[in-house]
């Protein structure tokens, strides 16, 4: 389900969700990556919640669709609707805000429970330009990330640090996962079933959806 | 002689013209009573038969005319206003809608037909036959467009055959559950797009275009059968969410923390447009078109946020605003539409595309509205219950704080306009006053000039003027003569120099 299904021309289409608390800088991160802008008053884009990026990684074309999610606590329960069928998740926290790191931990638990190991997780400590106010220790964040099979990155949207690497790395990992999946499938006989099931969305009861079922079959 | 002849009636003339031997009567056209009755009966019979034939012919003609009109309306709809009317009429007739939720379909808005005449009763489908409900008009148009599109595509005939066969086979699966139907359609999409890729070697772009058209053709044909089918409880859910949204009428912009400022005219304009678009979704038949409505609605929302906040909208801003729009619009058959799109839309569009993102947000908004409680609006659950039960309204206890509700906004706007109007009024009066002053000034000025001229005339009487002019003419003539006299002296002067031509 990671591929666009285009057998002739190999183009990967990946969906990446951005998760994290309200003011950790999700939007700044993605705006910096896609538009190379930070706090710009002359914004040309109408919105920063759905952005796409075309990449070329080792000769393979990759279409990246980045889905921003509403970070407010009251929308937390809607998470599963956003992140189903996504190939990657970027979990952002603010290094000056211990609370936002706890939120990331909650997200990781939920994602692993719902989507298993199919999804590539990135844990991102944003705002390293404010390192003097750091409240989340580097060791703790990195050891936690390793323990849940996620990669940890340090970024600053303001200084444009670490963002390009983050997305490039994530794309490579998602491609590996997609290729491994394809090999496992063999001749792709079950491809139609799995990619089709990817859109069987149950809208009314996001919590009750055994989302693991729909993706683990692939 | 002649007189005699006049009254003479021959014996034979008195007899019945039929020659039956009885005497005839003039009143019966010279027939005897028996023959007259026979003749008369036959005449009557023929009259009746003729009348009948005429009636039949008229009816047949009418029928033909109707049928041809019908056909024309089908083959080239909306060409003339008349055809349009016919089209609406057929739509009206064929869509026997008996559910409340279908209230919003445009076809039901047309007035009841009057002139359909005797054909109406025989062609009225039973309400239960869903095939009859479908507007054959739309289907035929979709088929035509599909065929036209496929003409330009390699192996288009093959694609069309497959689609038609599949669509027709769907008619026999009417009793299946909605999920199985969805499975069938999605399987078909998948197989077809795989085939297009592998067998016909189409580029992904072309395949996408073909798949869009396939979806359009198939879903237009299947719409009434698979939209809100009777096997599901979609309709119940529609009514539930509709009631839920009505019950939540008291939710304000502040409670949802929506970052739009409806006091700005451009923003409130965007809000209205967004509401219109989300309501319009129900009127579309093809999943892609429905998604298009959601996307347009979202774009208007983004515009509203950008104008209000002066920065690009993030998901943190977008979702609350979308929830607010859904609450305000209360779109008809919301759940049915969402289910329909989920079941029958092309999967690639929903998975990664921009349309899919907005659709997902709409699903989130609906889920949020369903689960909404006091906590999610930053209020106590008691307060929430009070508002829900209608015992209190948020405007009651704090009327000043929530003054930015739409009603008072409109009122303040009206006040503003009134102020502007009074200002204009004052300025206009000033202008009129100035104009009057100018007018009187002008009159004064002409009077003054007249007076001055008059006084000048008085101070220099006409006679003196005449004497001076005559004196002047005398001196002038004297001067002339003096010049003449001087001319004599001029002859004594040497001749003027002549230009000389030098040779060489």
Automatic annotation (TrEMBL), chain A:
Subcellular location: Cleavage furrow; Endoplasmic reticulum membrane
GO molecular function term, any single one: GTPase activity
Keywords assigned: GTP-binding, Lipoprotein, Membrane, Nucleotide-binding, Prenylation, Protein transport, Transport
CDD domains: Rab21
Coiled coil, from the record: none
Biological process according to GO: protein transport; Rab protein signal transduction
Record keyword rRNA processing present: no
Transport in keyword set: yes
Region feature Disordered, mapped onto this chain: 181-218
Cited Pfam families: Ras
SUPFAM superfamilies: P-loop containing nucleoside triphosphate hydrolases
GO cellular component: cleavage furrow; endoplasmic reticulum membrane
Protein's membrane topology: Lipid-anchor
Sequence ranges of Polar residues compositional bias: 188-197
UniProt similarity note: Belongs to the small GTPase superfamily. Rab family.
UniProt name for this protein: Ras-related protein Rab-21
Species per Swiss-Prot/TrEMBL record: Fundulus heteroclitus
Automatic annotation (TrEMBL), chain B:
Domain VPS9: 235-378
Residue ranges of domain A20-type in the record: 10-44
Residue span of region Disordered: 40-139, 389-409, 460-504
Top-level division of the source organism's lineage: Eukaryota
GO molecular function, one term: DNA binding
Biased composition (Basic and acidic residues): 40-49, 84-95
Short name of one Pfam family: DUF5601
One GO CC term on file: cytosol
Gene3D superfamilies: 1.10.246.120, 1.20.5.4770, VPS9 domain (1.20.1050.80)
Biased composition (Low complexity): 101-110, 121-135, 390-409, 462-482
Keyword Secreted in annotation: no
An annotated GO BP: vesicle-mediated transport
InterPro entries, alphabetized: DUF5601 (IPR041545), VPS9 (IPR003123), Vps9-like (IPR045046), VPS9_dom_sf (IPR037191), Znf_A20 (IPR002653)
Key words, A-Z: Metal-binding, Zinc, Zinc-finger
Protein known as: RAB guanine nucleotide exchange factor (GEF) 1, like
Organism expressing this protein natively: Fundulus heteroclitus (Killifish)
């Amino acid at each position: 389900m990671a591929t666009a299904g285009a057998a002739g021309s190999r183009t990967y289409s990946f969906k990446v969700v951005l998760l994290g608390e309200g003011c950790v800088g999700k939007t700044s991160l993605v705006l910096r990556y896609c538009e190379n802008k930070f706090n710009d008053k002359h914004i040309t884009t109408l919105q920063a919640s759905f952005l796409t990026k075309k990449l070329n990684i080792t000769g393979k074309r990759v279409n990246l669709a980045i889905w921003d999610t509403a970070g407010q606590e009251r929308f937390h329960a809607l998470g599963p609707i956003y992140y189903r069928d996504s190939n990657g998740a970027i979990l952002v926290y603010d290094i000056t805000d211990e609370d936002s790191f706890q939120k990331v931990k909650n997200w990781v638990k939920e994602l692993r429970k719902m989507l298993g190991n199919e999804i590539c997780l990135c844990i991102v400590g944003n705002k390293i330009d404010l390192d003097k106010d750091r409240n989340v220790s580097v060791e703790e964040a990195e050891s936690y990330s390793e323990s849940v099979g996620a990669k940890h990155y340090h970024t600053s949207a303001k200084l444009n640090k670490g963002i390009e690497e983050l997305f490039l790395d994530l794309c490579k990992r998602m491609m590996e996962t997609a290729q491994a999946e394809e090999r496992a499938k063999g001749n792709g006989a079950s491809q139609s079933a799995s990619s089709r099931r990817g859109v069987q969305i149950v809208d009314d009861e996001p919590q009750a959806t055994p989302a693991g079922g729909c993706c683990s079959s692939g | 002689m002649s007189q005699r002849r006049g009254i003479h009636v021959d014996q034979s003339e008195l007899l019945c013209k039929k020659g039956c031997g009885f005497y005839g009567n003039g009143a019966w056209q010279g027939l005897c009573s028996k023959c007259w009755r026979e003749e008369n009966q036959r005449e009557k019979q023929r009259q009746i038969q003729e009348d009948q034939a005429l009636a039949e012919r008229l009816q047949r003609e009418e029928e033909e005319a109707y049928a041809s009109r019908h056909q024309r309306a089908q083959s080239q709809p909306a060409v003339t206003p008349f055809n349009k009317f016919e089209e609406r009429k057929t739509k009206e007739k064929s869509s026997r809608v008996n559910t409340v939720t279908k209230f919003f379909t445009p076809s039901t808005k047309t007035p009841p037909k009057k002139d359909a005449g005797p054909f109406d009763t025989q062609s009225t489908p039973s309400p239960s036959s869903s095939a009859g409900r479908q507007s054959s008009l739309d289907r035929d148009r979709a088929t035509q467009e599909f065929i036209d599109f496929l003409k330009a595509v390699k192996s288009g005939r093959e694609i069309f055959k497959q689609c038609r066969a599949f669509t027709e086979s769907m008619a026999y699966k009417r009793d299946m559950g909605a999920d199985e139907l969805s499975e069938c359609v999605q399987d078909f999409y998948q197989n077809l797009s795989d085939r297009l890729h592998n067998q016909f070697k189409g580029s992904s772009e072309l395949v996408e275009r073909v798949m869009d058209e396939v979806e359009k053709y198939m879903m237009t044909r299947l719409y009434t059968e698979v939209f809100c089918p009777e096997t599901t409880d979609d309709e119940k859910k529609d009514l539930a969410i509709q009631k839920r949204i009505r019950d939540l009428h008291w939710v304000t912009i502040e409670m949802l923390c929506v970052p739009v400022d409806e006091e700005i005219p451009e923003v409130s304009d965007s809000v209205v447009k967004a509401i219109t678009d989300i309501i319009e979704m129900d009127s579309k038949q093809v999943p892609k078109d429905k998604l298009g409505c959601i996307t347009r609605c979202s774009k208007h929302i983004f515009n509203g946020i950008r104008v209000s906040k002066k920065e690009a909208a993030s998901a943190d801003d977008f979702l609350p605003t979308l929830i607010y729009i859904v609450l305000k619009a209360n779109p008809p058959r919301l759940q049915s539409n969402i289910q329909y799109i989920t079941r029958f839309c092309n999967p690639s569009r929903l998975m990664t595309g921009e349309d899919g993102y907005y659709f997902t947000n709409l699903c989130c908004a609906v889920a949020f509205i369903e689960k909404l409680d006091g906590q999610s609006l930053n209020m106590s659950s008691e307060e929430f219950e009070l508002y829900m039960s209608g015992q209190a309204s948020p405007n009651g206890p704090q009327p000043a704080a929530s003054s930015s509700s739409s009603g008072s906004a409109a009122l303040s706007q009206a006040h503003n306009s009134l102020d502007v109007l009074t200002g204009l009024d004052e300025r206009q009066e000033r202008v009129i006053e100035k104009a009057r002053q100018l007018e009187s000034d002008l009159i004064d000025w002409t009077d003054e000039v007249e007076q001055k001229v008059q006084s000048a005339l008085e101070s220099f009487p006409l006679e003196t003027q005449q004497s001076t002019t005559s004196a002047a003419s005398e001196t002038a003539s004297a001067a002339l003569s003096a010049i003449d006299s001087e001319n004599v002296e001029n002859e004594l002067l040497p001749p003027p120099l002549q230009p000389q031509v030098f040779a060489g």
